[in-house]
Amino acid sequence: MAEDHPQHELAIRVGSLHKSYRLGDRRVDALNGMDLEITEPGFYAVMGASGSGKSTLLHLLAGLDKADRGTLEVLGIRVDELPEHELTRYRRHTVGVMFQRFNLLPTLTAYENVVLPGVLDKRPPAELRERGMGLLEEMGLADRSRHRPDALSGGEQQRVAIARALFFAPQILFADEPTGNLDTLSSERLWSTMEDLADKRNMIVLMVTHEAEAASRCRKVFLVKDGCSAGVIDAEDLEPSELAARATAITRST
Ligand SMILES: Nc1ncnc2c1ncn2[C@@H]1O[C@H](COP(=O)(O)OP(=O)(O)OP(=O)(O)O)[C@@H](O)[C@H]1O
Ligand SMILES: [Mg+2]
Questions:
Q1: Residue 239, in any domain of the structure
Q2: Is residue 61 part of a domain?
Q3: What is the pLDDT of residues 97-122, one digit of tens each?
Q4: Is residue 247 in a domain?
Q5: Among all ligands shown, which has an atom nearest to the Cα of 50?
């Protein structure tokens, strides 16, 4: 099953986005006029110091939280203007999301985790089966379908999380430090998987990362500082060390 996608531009546009959190009587400005634009499929990275607003940006893009002001446009949809019931559909169907940890429900098997979005959407069993097993196979996990998360390696768990995020064949995947808890080999495999999704499925894959190794595989790297855009690096053909040096230089100078 592939979800029917209405005609729209495969693009993400973020304009002057503001988001504050209140902690007691303190206000934290997590996003302070953030801008970002992606208009072609590909693998993209967001980098910036801890606390600079990267996760906040991804949460807002994924429809998990509401911005205070500014515009958020994804696939032609003004996410900032969606009413609550449409936001739920957007979160579940239009985009895929994965995080550093706690992606899977511990009591469900790998297969049950992958098909959960379809179960919640009351899809027929035959479709769940075909889609679930197809995705597990695509992620190289067909023989792990009955394993619960605690019987899977960290890398396997994250590939189950990707499979689940792809259940409704979204054209956009947001990933917040997906390899933050993985060893080098598992990380590299996950980055390759995300690169492949961008190439073969023509998706926009937007990943928050602290690792220059990961970012150097991306088409562009969006630098974030103090809740604002600090610059964009064309990362294609850059070595990780060169990318890290440029990112540091740009972030320092802004
Ligand atoms: N729910 C919340 N309540 C209060 N403050 C928050 C909340 N979430 C984030 N913040 C604050 O907003 C700022 C941005 O946080 P965010 O999580 O977006 O940073 P980040 O760039 O993802 O950092 P890291 O690299 O450490 O994950 C930080 O100062 C953080 O403490
Ligand atoms: Mg974060």
A1: yes
A2: yes
A3: 999 887 899 999 999 999 999 999 99
A4: yes
A5: 1
Counting ligand 1 atoms within 8 A of each CB, the residue from 14, 18, 21, 60 with the most, and so the one to mutate, is 21
Cα dist. 173→96, 195, 197, 244 in Å? 5, 11, 9, 24
Domain count within the chain: 1
Ligand with minimal distance to 59 CA: 1
Whether 235 is covered by a domain: the verdict is: yes
What's the gap in Å between 52 CA and the centre of ligand 1? 7
Q: Whose CA is nearest to atom 6 of ligand 1?
A: 21
CATH number, domain containing residue 81: 3.40.50.300
CA of 178 relative to ligand 1 center, distance in Å: 17
Residues within a 6 A CB radius of ligand 1: 21, 23, 28, 30, 48, 50-56
Q: Which residues form the domain of 40? A: 12-102+169-253
Encode pLDDT of 168-198 as tens digits.
999 999 999 999 989 999 999 999 999 999 9
